[in-house]
Amino acid sequence: SQQGEEDPQALSIQEGENATMNCSYKTSINNLQWYRQNSGRGLVHLILIRSNEREKHSGRLRVTLDTSKKSSSLLITASRAADTASYFCATDTLNRDDKIIFGKGTRLHILP
Amino acid sequence: DTAVSQTPKYLVTQMGNDKSIKCEQNLGHDTMYWYKQDSKKFLKIMFSYNNKELIINETVPNRFSPKSPDKAHLNLHINSLELGDSAVYFCASSRLSEAFFGQGTRLTVV
User: Fold this and answer.
1) Nearest to B102 by CA among B87, B91, B88
2) With contacts defined as CB-CB under 8 Å, which chain A residues touch B94?
3) Which residues in chain A touch residue B103, judged by CB atoms under 8 angstroms apart?
Protein backbone atom coordinates (compact mmCIF):
# COMPACT_ATOMS: atom_id res chain seq x y z
CA SER A 1 0.00 0.00 0.00
CA GLN A 2 1.22 3.47 -0.80
CA GLN A 3 0.51 6.33 1.53
CA GLY A 4 2.37 9.36 0.26
CA GLU A 5 2.32 10.97 -3.14
CA GLU A 6 4.97 13.58 -3.93
CA ASP A 7 4.47 16.41 -6.33
CA PRO A 8 6.08 17.24 -8.67
CA GLN A 9 7.64 13.98 -9.83
CA ALA A 10 10.64 15.88 -11.15
CA LEU A 11 11.94 19.40 -10.62
CA SER A 12 14.84 21.27 -12.19
CA ILE A 13 15.91 24.64 -10.84
CA GLN A 14 18.91 26.92 -11.00
CA GLU A 15 21.47 26.81 -8.23
CA GLY A 16 20.61 29.40 -5.61
CA GLU A 17 16.86 29.19 -6.16
CA ASN A 18 14.44 27.68 -3.67
CA ALA A 19 12.96 24.25 -4.28
CA THR A 20 9.53 23.27 -3.03
CA MET A 21 8.21 19.73 -3.01
CA ASN A 22 4.81 18.63 -1.84
CA CYS A 23 3.48 15.43 -0.36
CA SER A 24 -0.08 14.27 0.10
CA TYR A 25 -1.15 11.26 2.12
CA LYS A 26 -4.34 9.34 2.66
CA THR A 27 -4.80 8.21 6.25
CA SER A 28 -4.25 9.82 9.63
CA ILE A 29 -0.64 9.88 10.65
CA ASN A 30 1.53 9.93 13.73
CA ASN A 31 4.58 11.51 12.11
CA LEU A 32 5.66 12.61 8.67
CA GLN A 33 9.27 12.51 7.58
CA TRP A 34 11.32 13.58 4.61
CA TYR A 35 14.24 11.57 3.27
CA ARG A 36 16.85 12.20 0.59
CA GLN A 37 18.27 9.56 -1.72
CA ASN A 38 21.37 10.26 -3.76
CA SER A 39 21.78 8.21 -6.90
CA GLY A 40 22.76 4.64 -6.10
CA ARG A 41 22.62 5.16 -2.36
CA GLY A 42 20.31 4.45 0.53
CA LEU A 43 17.85 6.93 1.97
CA VAL A 44 18.98 9.48 4.51
CA HIS A 45 16.61 10.95 7.05
CA LEU A 46 16.27 14.74 6.79
CA ILE A 47 13.55 15.87 9.13
CA LEU A 48 10.55 14.59 11.09
CA ILE A 49 7.42 16.56 11.86
CA ARG A 50 4.85 15.31 14.33
CA SER A 51 1.14 15.39 13.62
CA ASN A 52 0.62 18.13 16.20
CA GLU A 53 3.28 20.38 14.63
CA ARG A 54 2.67 22.76 11.75
CA GLU A 55 6.16 23.85 10.77
CA LYS A 56 9.71 22.79 11.41
CA HIS A 57 13.11 24.09 10.34
CA SER A 58 16.48 22.44 10.01
CA GLY A 59 19.24 24.47 8.38
CA ARG A 60 18.10 25.26 4.84
CA LEU A 61 15.11 22.95 5.15
CA ARG A 62 11.62 24.04 6.08
CA VAL A 63 8.80 21.54 6.42
CA THR A 64 5.14 22.35 6.85
CA LEU A 65 2.33 20.00 7.72
CA ASP A 66 -1.39 20.54 7.19
CA THR A 67 -3.24 17.60 8.70
CA SER A 68 -6.62 18.96 7.59
CA LYS A 69 -5.48 18.72 3.97
CA LYS A 70 -3.31 15.68 4.62
CA SER A 71 -0.36 17.38 2.99
CA SER A 72 3.17 18.47 3.69
CA SER A 73 5.75 20.55 1.87
CA LEU A 74 9.52 20.55 1.92
CA LEU A 75 11.28 23.79 1.05
CA ILE A 76 15.00 23.83 0.36
CA THR A 77 16.31 27.37 0.32
CA ALA A 78 19.36 28.61 -1.59
CA SER A 79 19.76 25.31 -3.41
CA ARG A 80 23.18 23.85 -4.14
CA ALA A 81 24.43 21.32 -6.66
CA ALA A 82 24.79 18.82 -3.82
CA ASP A 83 21.03 18.99 -3.22
CA THR A 84 20.50 17.07 -6.47
CA ALA A 85 18.77 13.89 -5.31
CA SER A 86 15.39 12.24 -4.94
CA TYR A 87 13.27 13.34 -2.01
CA PHE A 88 10.69 11.12 -0.39
CA CYS A 89 8.06 11.77 2.21
CA ALA A 90 7.21 8.95 4.59
CA THR A 91 4.47 8.48 7.13
CA ASP A 92 3.81 6.26 10.06
CA THR A 93 0.28 5.79 11.20
CA LEU A 94 -1.54 6.28 14.45
CA ASN A 95 -2.03 2.56 14.98
CA ARG A 96 1.72 2.22 15.41
CA ASP A 97 1.96 -0.92 13.36
CA ASP A 98 5.67 -0.35 12.82
CA LYS A 99 5.06 0.54 9.22
CA ILE A 100 6.80 3.47 7.53
CA ILE A 101 5.27 4.08 4.14
CA PHE A 102 7.03 6.07 1.44
CA GLY A 103 5.73 8.12 -1.43
CA LYS A 104 7.04 7.89 -4.99
CA GLY A 105 9.53 10.68 -4.56
CA THR A 106 10.47 13.90 -6.30
CA ARG A 107 13.63 13.95 -8.40
CA LEU A 108 15.32 17.28 -7.84
CA HIS A 109 18.00 18.47 -10.23
CA ILE A 110 19.97 21.60 -9.45
CA LEU A 111 21.36 23.25 -12.57
CA PRO A 112 24.74 25.01 -12.30
CA ASP B 1 31.01 2.23 11.87
CA THR B 2 28.21 1.39 9.46
CA ALA B 3 24.85 1.62 11.19
CA VAL B 4 22.89 -0.62 8.82
CA SER B 5 24.90 -2.86 6.57
CA GLN B 6 23.64 -5.25 3.97
CA THR B 7 25.45 -7.70 1.77
CA PRO B 8 26.00 -8.20 -1.03
CA LYS B 9 25.84 -4.80 -2.69
CA TYR B 10 25.32 -6.34 -6.12
CA LEU B 11 23.81 -9.69 -6.99
CA VAL B 12 23.44 -11.06 -10.51
CA THR B 13 21.81 -14.43 -10.82
CA GLN B 14 19.84 -16.60 -13.19
CA MET B 15 16.11 -17.19 -13.10
CA GLY B 16 15.11 -20.05 -10.87
CA ASN B 17 18.01 -19.68 -8.46
CA ASP B 18 17.71 -19.15 -4.73
CA LYS B 19 19.59 -16.28 -3.13
CA SER B 20 19.91 -14.52 0.22
CA ILE B 21 20.61 -10.95 1.24
CA LYS B 22 21.92 -10.28 4.72
CA CYS B 23 21.27 -7.25 6.89
CA GLU B 24 22.73 -6.21 10.21
CA GLN B 25 22.19 -3.10 12.32
CA ASN B 26 24.32 -1.98 15.23
CA LEU B 27 21.97 0.75 16.43
CA GLY B 28 20.12 -1.33 19.00
CA HIS B 29 16.82 -0.76 17.20
CA ASP B 30 13.90 -3.09 17.78
CA THR B 31 12.31 -2.72 14.36
CA MET B 32 13.77 -3.75 11.03
CA TYR B 33 12.38 -3.62 7.50
CA TRP B 34 12.88 -4.79 3.99
CA TYR B 35 11.90 -2.45 1.16
CA LYS B 36 11.95 -3.02 -2.58
CA GLN B 37 12.73 -0.13 -4.93
CA ASP B 38 11.79 -0.71 -8.52
CA SER B 39 13.12 0.91 -11.68
CA LYS B 40 10.72 3.83 -11.24
CA LYS B 41 12.22 4.46 -7.79
CA PHE B 42 9.00 3.52 -6.03
CA LEU B 43 9.94 2.31 -2.54
CA LYS B 44 7.58 -0.39 -1.34
CA ILE B 45 7.60 -1.95 2.10
CA MET B 46 7.87 -5.74 2.07
CA PHE B 47 8.33 -6.81 5.66
CA SER B 48 8.59 -5.33 9.12
CA TYR B 49 10.00 -7.15 12.13
CA ASN B 50 9.89 -6.04 15.74
CA ASN B 51 12.13 -7.87 18.19
CA LYS B 52 12.50 -10.82 15.82
CA GLU B 53 8.75 -11.11 15.28
CA LEU B 54 7.07 -10.55 11.93
CA ILE B 55 4.74 -7.56 12.11
CA ILE B 56 4.02 -6.79 8.48
CA ASN B 57 4.00 -8.88 5.34
CA GLU B 58 2.80 -6.65 2.53
CA THR B 59 1.39 -9.16 0.05
CA VAL B 60 4.82 -10.36 -0.89
CA PRO B 61 5.00 -13.71 -2.73
CA ASN B 62 5.88 -16.56 -0.42
CA ARG B 63 9.06 -17.07 -2.45
CA PHE B 64 10.37 -14.28 -0.22
CA SER B 65 11.11 -15.45 3.29
CA PRO B 66 12.62 -13.11 5.87
CA LYS B 67 14.48 -14.52 8.83
CA SER B 68 15.48 -12.71 11.98
CA PRO B 69 17.88 -14.77 14.10
CA ASP B 70 18.17 -11.91 16.58
CA LYS B 71 16.97 -8.34 16.69
CA ALA B 72 20.15 -7.03 15.07
CA HIS B 73 19.76 -9.16 11.94
CA LEU B 74 17.09 -9.49 9.30
CA ASN B 75 17.98 -11.61 6.32
CA LEU B 76 15.95 -12.03 3.15
CA HIS B 77 15.88 -15.31 1.30
CA ILE B 78 14.36 -15.49 -2.16
CA ASN B 79 13.46 -18.78 -3.82
CA SER B 80 12.96 -19.44 -7.51
CA LEU B 81 14.00 -15.99 -8.63
CA GLU B 82 12.02 -14.36 -11.42
CA LEU B 83 12.89 -11.57 -13.83
CA GLY B 84 10.43 -9.28 -12.05
CA ASP B 85 12.40 -9.62 -8.82
CA SER B 86 15.11 -7.42 -10.32
CA ALA B 87 15.22 -4.31 -8.15
CA VAL B 88 17.18 -2.66 -5.38
CA TYR B 89 16.38 -4.11 -1.97
CA PHE B 90 16.89 -1.93 1.08
CA CYS B 91 17.14 -3.00 4.67
CA ALA B 92 16.29 -0.44 7.33
CA SER B 93 15.91 -0.21 11.06
CA SER B 94 14.06 2.27 13.20
CA ARG B 95 13.21 3.42 16.66
CA LEU B 96 10.63 6.10 17.28
CA SER B 97 9.79 6.51 13.58
CA GLU B 98 13.12 7.63 12.08
CA ALA B 99 14.44 4.94 9.76
CA PHE B 100 18.08 4.25 8.98
CA PHE B 101 18.78 2.59 5.68
CA GLY B 102 21.44 0.31 4.36
CA GLN B 103 23.12 1.07 1.06
CA GLY B 104 20.92 -1.34 -0.85
CA THR B 105 21.44 -4.57 -2.76
CA ARG B 106 20.97 -4.31 -6.50
CA LEU B 107 19.53 -7.64 -7.60
CA THR B 108 19.57 -8.45 -11.30
CA VAL B 109 17.87 -11.61 -12.46
CA VAL B 110 18.87 -12.73 -15.95
Assistant:
1) B91
2) 98, 100
3) 41-42
CA nearest to A91 within chain B: B97
Residues 6+ apart with CB under 8 A from B83: B15, B109, B110
CB B76 within 8 A of CB B58: no
R_g of chain B computed on alpha carbons? 13
**Residue-wise pLDDT tens digits, B48-94:** 888 888 887 777 899 999 999 998 999 999 999 999 999 999 999 99
* A18-71 per-position pLDDT tens digit: 999 999 998 888 899 999 999 988 999 999 999 999 999 999 999 999 999 999
Nearest residue of B to residue A104 by CA position?
B42
Separation CA A95–CA A29 (nearest Å) = 9
In order of start, what are the domains of chain A with their CATH numbers?
5-111 (2.60.40.10)
Q: For chain B, what are the domain ranges? A: 4-109
Tell me if chain B has a CB within 8 Å of the CB of A90. yes
Tell me if chain A has a CB within 8 Å of the CB of B101.
Answer: yes
What is the domain class of B4-109 according to CATH? mainly beta
3-state secondary structure of B25: strand
Q: Count A/B contacts: CB-CB distance under 8 Å.
A: 66
